[in-house]
Amino acid sequence: MHISSGRWVYGLFLALLTAVLWGVLPIKLKEVLQAMDPVTVTWFRLLVPGSILLAYLAASGRLPAFRPLGKKGVWLLLLAVVSLTANYVLYLVGLNRLSPGTAQLVIQVAPILLLISSLFVFRERFSLTQGLGLLVLLTGFALFFNQRLGELLTSLTTYTTGVLTILLAAFVWTFYGLAQKQLLTVWNSLQVMMVIYLACALLLTPWAQPQQVLVLSPLQGWLLLACCLNTLVAYGAFAEALAHWEASRVSATLALTPLVTLASVALAATWWPDHVQPEQINGLAYGGAVLVMLGSALTALGPSVVAGWRARKARLAALA
Q1: Up-side HSE of residue 283: CA atoms within 13 Å toward CB?
Q2: Which own/partner contact pairs does 238-242 have at CB distance under 8 Å and 24+ positions apart?
Q3: Is residue 226 within 8 Å of 44, Cβ to Cβ?
């Protein structure tokens, strides 16, 4: 079992860095999508970091061996490749129809779905604290969509289609998360990501149109490169954060990602109004966004809260 290094300040810094990188990503992607289709953007986002990881692992002599996978591992790898490809493409399709803040908030459903799936696949426990967190999260979603709840429930508009597409992206990501968790018993995280990224890029190659990069403006070109590097750096910071801090606390910190997106959109809309539009939501919706983040954090911290409560109870019993 992995034990964190105890350097929690460093782990907190890396988790916050990941939250910031993931938080600003939808804003950059939204600008690039004005000149490039979702499949081609995804192809670049997977090919570039995959190639960098390939060069690094080859230079360090740590390329993964496929024989230890076995037949079951190959099927898990195929599941991870197909589901992550679908997740990336569907997220961008949904982002094309929504604001960055809305898309980032809705995708918060993904780790919750993974948690629920783990209850059945890995027989993990679901505590009362996590149940409370899930209730807070659902309440937050209801408040966030208060202005368009009727539209979401009664008609299939562009907005509704965008939300449903992001929810589908979150759903298929769950299969990727479950498959990756098993693949990590054979390969390390860098090896898993290298293989999956390059395989996903290969899968998308027949539909990708790399020549679209030629029509990008200089700003869009730099933003595309930033999106590609974001995938690599953010994941690296996330993996390193897990080495120095408990996974539950890292996950709780990452619940701040939608807040980073909403704040970034507000700033960008002020500084670059020609490129970024402000979020069209009211105060009640902002309160709902905060509840979604609190619910996500509480759900992630649930096991730690229960473990801490039991430890304190045991210490009090020993002193009695």
Answers
A1: 0
A2: 238/14, 238/15, 238/18, 239/189, 239/190, 240/14, 241/11, 241/12, 241/14, 241/15, 241/18, 242/2, 242/4, 242/11
A3: no
What are 81's two structure tokens?
A: 């490749």
- Do 19 and 241 meet the contact criterion of CB atoms below 8 Å apart? no
Identity of the amino acid at 229: L
b (16+ CB within 10 A) / e for 199-225: bbbebbeeebeeebbeebeeebeebbe
Give per-residue pLDDT as tens, 112-168: 777 777 667 666 566 777 788 888 888 988 888 888 877 787 778 888 999 999 999
User: What pLDDT does 5 receive?
Assistant: 56
Q: What is the pTM of this model?
A: 0.83
Question: Distance from CA of residue 261 to its chain's centroid?
Answer: 13
* CA distances in angstroms from 269 to 27, 135, 262, listed in the order given: 10, 32, 11
pLDDT digits (tens, 9 = 90+) for 258-267: 888 888 888 8
